[in-house]
Write a structure and sequence with these properties.
348 residues; homodimer; mainly alpha; two-stranded antiparallel sheet
């Protein structure tokens, strides 16, 4: 279990790097001709975001290179064989990919808001949003292509980035397909979460290992750390949707249930014989009452489904942390472990 | 000027390679889980297409390696320093990128048909089409990442592919923006054509130069060959829209004029004082008459605008062909020159 100090430590680590990440985003993705396209491409990136994935990339680099957190110029970062790479470009590329996926997902899901502002297709139009996402997509590869260092390592990072993007598309396709499936299995849900959400954490942790020239076993361990932390994050997100008060969540508690979204919790409950479809009568978050949500959550608690999901998230986060034993024992490694804890125990 | 034998020679060269390109597309982009996503991703590729860009890649490789056309296994193709690369994967990657751009363009332009079949967003739905395009996008990078050979050369090819994709997005953004511009300049139009259409021909010719380890000057010459041939192709396409009978075109002759699409021809005519907006009264291709088109074409001919565009296309094709003088004098080089001729003198 994490403590308040773990959370504040992780948030401090993110804060310390955020302005440099933001500056680098601005440098690597300048507002250029044609202006409207780049304005739309930069719009969501400028609307905010924790920069969690690029932070993982930077801290993973520090853990691998065995340097103290925040001690080293990310633009000329030491590799394991004494060369230098621009680790910041890699971090930026991962955030740019994340932004691309959000823009296209918002079109597909017809979500009006993102990070408290209108989504890109809403602020501009669908064509511009498709094109802004496409521009970010190839820009991320352009940025990643020029980190310097050994070409073989850069090529490996490019290969990992491309396979990661393909998996994210597969995960989004499964997520859409699952909306019309009534016979979903927990393992199918976990596969979807791995592909849609977790692989980008995996890439965020494994790309620095590729660039720094780490052994294949270390690359794989870093990737699995990201995968398992990312899965834990998503499962815990489903738990928090039911257990955190609406005012803290910033949206209606239980909205997944109201909107018939399957999660590991509902899939477990179905297996326990709970009539999940009958838990909520209300057809929208506007008409649901807190009392109705309370009853539904109580039924899911009685079935052990919320504990099941919470324990699954904790087990995955622990697995992820254990992967890091391949790294030197240093402060940055501890910070990566704290990030895994933070992903499941964050205050919302 | 080309002759019938040039055209038939180019078509024969395309025919000779098409089934192998198609087999490789099927191998590198198999129908896999999740099936519906990959079915949608493969749908347009399976609907046909000349495979002109991958043919350019393969023939450019033959010209660079100085081997006889069609004499060498593309899967283990000789580089300039005696190693081997999988040139077919590079060719496939370029066709996959082309297919991605068509799928997303058809969504943006709301085009119902492509290659005689419903466009992907029409056959499936918009979300699936966005995702199918996104899947092809990263798949192309995955395919390009594993051509073998020198990592530095593969990385250079990846870098070229990514900057090419960014430029294609910029070109599409300009094309959309130009629809609401009444003060477009010919140079702006040429820039749009370069970005939207020509750079992918440039990459098709230059990627093999990168992979085979050619000098930077040769890479640049091949790229310019593709750019200039590709621009010539698009300008000639605008000419053919006015000069080829509707039954041969397979669509209404003069449709660009009816739909108020600016081309190099209309932009030249405007500069000559022609009232381009008044040339056609009809508001759609359904109501326009051949006589009205004839009169409009006559006015554009009188202004010298059609000859201007035709000569521009011919000059660009010639420039492109001249770039190939950096290559060894061989049969494949002649074929690349014939392809440039074919692009502007093809029967429709």
């Amino acid at each position: 279990m994490t403590t308040d100090s773990t959370e504040s430590r992780v948030l401090a680590a993110i804060d310390e790097r955020r302005s440099r990440i933001n500056d680098a985003l601005d440098e690597e993705l300048p507002l250029q001709h044609p202006e409207r396209l780049y304005e739309a491409s930069r719009y969501l990136l400028q609307a905010g975001g924790k920069r969690l994935r690029p932070t993982v990339t930077l801290v993973a680099g520090e853990a691998l290179a065995d340097v103290a957190p925040d001690s080293t110029d990310y633009r000329s970062f030491p590799t394991l064989n004494g060369a230098e790479v621009d680790l910041m470009r890699a971090a930026v590329a991962l955030e740019v990919i994340q932004s691309f996926t959000l823009i296209h997902d918002d079109i597909m899901d017809d979500d009006d808001l993102r990070r408290g502002v209108p989504s890109v297709h809403n602020e501009y139009d669908t064509s511009t949003a498709i094109l802004a996402g496409d521009t970010l997509y190839s820009s991320a590869f352009e940025i990643m292509a020029d980190t310097g260092g050994e070409p073989a390592n850069a090529l490996a990072a490019m290969r990992l980035l491309s396979s990661t993007c393909t998996k994210i598309c597969e995960g989004q396709a499964l997520d859409i397909a699952f909306e019309s499936r009534s016979d979903l299995l927990p393992d199918e849900y976990l596969e979807m979460v791995e592909l849609k959400t977790a692989v980008l954490y995996g890439a965020s942790a494994a790309v620095p290992a590729e660039l720094l020239g780490a052994d294949e076993a270390v690359v794989e361990a870093m990737y699995q750390y990201g995968i398992e932390s990312g899965q834990a994050f998503q499962i815990q997100d489903d738990v928090l949707d039911l257990t955190v008060p609406s005012e803290t969540l910033g949206k209606q508690r239980g909205s997944d249930l109201v909107e018939d979204k399957e999660t590991l919790i509902t899939l477990h409950a179905r297996q326990q014989g709970v009539d999940v479809d009958g838990l909520i009568e209300a057809k929208s978050v506007d008409e649901v009452t807190e009392a109705e949500i309370d009853d539904a959550v109580a039924a899911l608690e009685d079935a052990g489904s919320i504990d099941y999901a919470r324990e699954k998230a904790e087990a995955l986060a622990q697995q992820g942390k254990d992967r890091l034993d391949v790294l030197p024992d240093n402060e940055a490694r501890d910070l990566l472990k704290a990030i895994a804890d933070y992903l499941i125990d964050r205050g919302y």
